[in-house]
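Colleagues,

Please find the record for the two-part complex below.
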Amino acid sequence: MPATDIRPLLAVLVGFIACVVILIVGEKNRDIREGITFGAAISKFLILISLFPLVYEGGKYLFTTPELLPGISLSFMADPFSLFFSTLSSMLWIVTTMFSIGYMRGLHEHKQTRYYAAFAACIGATIGIANSANLFTLFVFYEILTVATYPLVIHDEDEESLAAGRKYLAYTLTGGIFILFSLVLTYDIAGTLNFANTGLLSASMASPLLLKLLFATFIIGFGVKAAIMPLHSWLPSVMVAPTPVSALLHCVAVVKAGTFGIIRVVNNVYGIELMGDLGLGLPLVIVASITIIISMLIALTKDHLKARLAYSTINELSYIVLGAGLLTEFGVTGSMVHIANHAFMKIGMFFFAGTVFVATGKEYISEMDGIGKRMPISTLVFSIGAIALTGTPPLVGFISKWYLALGAIQSPHPVFVGVLLASALLNVAVFWPIIYKAFFKEPEVKRRPKVSLWLMIPMVFASFGTIVLGLFPRFPYTPLELAFRAVRLFLGG
Amino acid sequence: MLLNQNQLPILLVLIPLFGAYLAAISVLFKKKINNILSLILLSLSFFLSLLTANHVLTSGDISYHTAGLQPPFAIEIVVDPLSALMTIIITSLSLLTVIYSREFIRKELSDKRESYYYILVLLLTGGLNWFVIAGDIFNMFVGLEILSISSYSLIAIAQNKEAIASAYQYLLMGSIGSSFFLLGTGYLYIMTGTLNFADLAIRIAQLGLFNSEAIFASTAFIVTGLSIKGAIFPLHVWMPDAYSKALAPICALSSGAIIEAAVYALIRITLTVYGIEFITEIVPVKTILLWLAGIAIIIGSLYAISQSNIKRMLAYSSVSQMGYIVMGYGIGTQLGLSAGILHLFNHSIMKACLFFAVGAIAYKTGKTDLYEYEGMGDKMPVTMMFFSLAAISMVGIPPTNGFISKFYLVWASASSTRWIFAAIILVSSLLNAIYFFRIINKAYFGGGHEEASRDEAPYTMLVPIGVLAISCVVFGLAFNIPLSLIEPVAEKLMTLSLII
């Protein structure tokens, strides 16, 4: 029996309450405003941490509100997978807030109140997605996230960012209607939308053809935010947003909401067994593999640092999708743990891009000759992230790739280990030139720019995570341990 | 209780109608009293409509007969949960309109016309209430005439040439609609000798009139007549012109209650008098309307996208939204009918809110064009916030009532395997996103921040806008409240079967 507890909902509400309070406090009291963001982020994190012990021991928290329709309610839960995602997002919100303060004040950005308020709403929505106990609740917050991200994407309010905003909405709202359609159809054939550990659908509910088509519409829907090719092209465009937004939302919260949805659909809507019976894993893995390779080839051609990082994100997101499609214990574990691992690696790299922009105004790789000599610590953070991305032990990237490879070997299609290896090589090709330029070329200007601590601490934290979680992946309460627990539930254990 | 609860519904008609006369007299003694007077009378009507709904839900339908006779000879008034819901929509919207009009009308109209305005609003409310609770088709016609004539005048009252021209166009089309309705009624009376809804249904079945050409003709006339009144595509052409010239509160009332009432009547008459089988199998009214609705949804949205005058845009959006309602009805299942009527309720909240907000902006700044909205988010933040909330609801983002409509309509289409209509609804929500986000973009992110100094609409205007905008969210979660009034009737209407 799951324990009834309001905390899963409370963690969601904190974000939305913070959003309103920030709007009221406004620009005049900016220290108070940022204090509220911090307070909300930390209290959210603590609320989620307090849920850990029971969930870790195999329990579950559930908070249901009255049913809106038979079998449909706004309900919140904390199971290992939801805690995995919600804790990750709220923890990174704390560090990103720090970074935001350094970045936004460093650049004297306009409309900071709107920025912090929208940010708080986004995180509230992300936790809502993570903690939702059914597909309906997940969809509600998924759509709120779409809208709440919009003011952040168009923050600059120039032609380019408005165009990116239009593209973003066109893609994500279209994805949204695919999800809505799938969700309605699921409700029509199953009569419920509550996530079940081993899947809420069963083969007897509808014809195999219908179930396959339904799966396709689900994947198209969630695939937009998960940036599966060819639904990815909004992601490089929204890199016009301020860098902390790219760092937290377009590398953790928003895009991983898409992959989170895919993992929920695979495991909790269909169930691994039904997925296997219908033969749905292989198409998913193939689509993901194509994305993995092509995105890296495109990344090679990009000179804009954030654009290159965006394509690398597309690449890494598809690792997650690939793992989910393998339908094996280690495959799904690897897929899940990669959500956290990629977050630590990539957020540090985005922070580097942001710090360079604040300190020197440079955005293009070709301008970054010798940047390592001018900003050694920041560049080191970037390099650690890049090395981890290629899958070098003992960093976190290795952990995910190890389990993904094991998962592929467990599955009937071990050939996909080859995709992982090829992608690792491509990652070297994409990131090595940057590291080389940064450390081994002479800078035009020798002066060392001053980097504020607000920017430095978050970067160092990301690197710290990348290293520690790589060295001690199986310590208690690490993402990997949570992922194992989640997968055990999904396999019916 | 002082009065018999069965007499509640007749008061819903009498209070506003006699109130109109009272207003006409009292203005002779004291100028500017009409706003307060109509406020009091409509609050009372609104309260009574809530009481009626409560009574209907707890102790069953109300059937009230005038003149001490029994139907079919007496004038019968029938209130079931659905007509109770309609009276709630009508009285609440007219009450909000009167509150909103206090400042608005004072600026727009001369003193003399101001007193006419409130008289006409009271007449309109009385007519609408009469129209929706009538138990026979002739009384329905009487209600229709009262509401039509007062609405023509209300559109023309704006006092400029264009308003008069567009009201004249509306008058011409509306009169054609009314006469068609009357012709259809005449055919029914000739063939059956009765006018009472329940009695008509029985007589048509008893006399075996299902293949009678006169009955076919009556269906055609009544459906066409009501389609004109309800602005159902392709008979919507009067609406964009009328709305773009009329006063904003009248647009809100018209879009939120008048065209809704006409569609309600269409649903009510076709399903009670003719029955679901007749309109499905013998005369394919339902199928025709379903496809027309599908086209209306897409074309209406495309027209809305191409407008730059916001009131015109909202009018075309209404064409598309009426399509949603008719589509729900045309799907032909109980779920579809509930979905359609639920959208009727939701649409009147959202659209009235949007018209009120647009009116408030025009009142303060004189701006009516989408490209003039730059910086409006800073200039009138509260109004724009409510506008955006209603706009987001129109797009169907959860947790708003527009999302629930969308959910229900897609569900109804999917469960009857009409995939194309599910697709139309979903695509239409994207088209809605195009034209609503364009306004929100202009208002908040379109530059023009420098010149903006805060200049908010008066409270009497903000309150109605706010009540409606917050209702969008409230009924996005508490949609069980309208559904509890809709579902019993939807079930009854879909299971009435008189073909023996």
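Chain B touches chain A at residues 392, 395, 397-399, 403, 406-407, 410-411, 414-415, 422, 426-427, 429-430, 433, 437, 441, 444-447, 477, 479-480 (CB under 8 Å).

Comments are welcome before we finalize the supplementary table.
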